[in-house]
Specification:
By secondary structure, the protein is mainly alpha-helical. Helices cover 74% and strands 0% of the residues. Helix 1 packs across helix 2 and helix 3 crosses helix 4. The longest helix is centred in the C-terminal third of the chain and has 14 residues.
Length: 98
Amino acid sequence: MWLEKSAEYGHNGAKTELAQILLKESRTEEAFRLLSEASKSGNARAELVLGRMCRDGKGVDKDLYLAAEHMRKASANGIGWAESELMAVLWEMNDPKS
């Protein structure tokens, strides 16, 4: 698959796209690794997806503080809807029922 080859060669967009496919296949460890690599290079979409994984506890322990950190980075790097997702996480963090 060309997407896998692009990810192997270090293309961060390909890593993020492949990770999202892997998440749909419940291959969360592989997805997390690719997203982490892409986020280290400043890929905002990777940050957002990592934030969602942390928020939902998908493949990782649920961690709203880490989710917020990833979503802040995504928002700061141009992902517009990351700000609204960040606000929802912050709201949940302050909810005594969570």
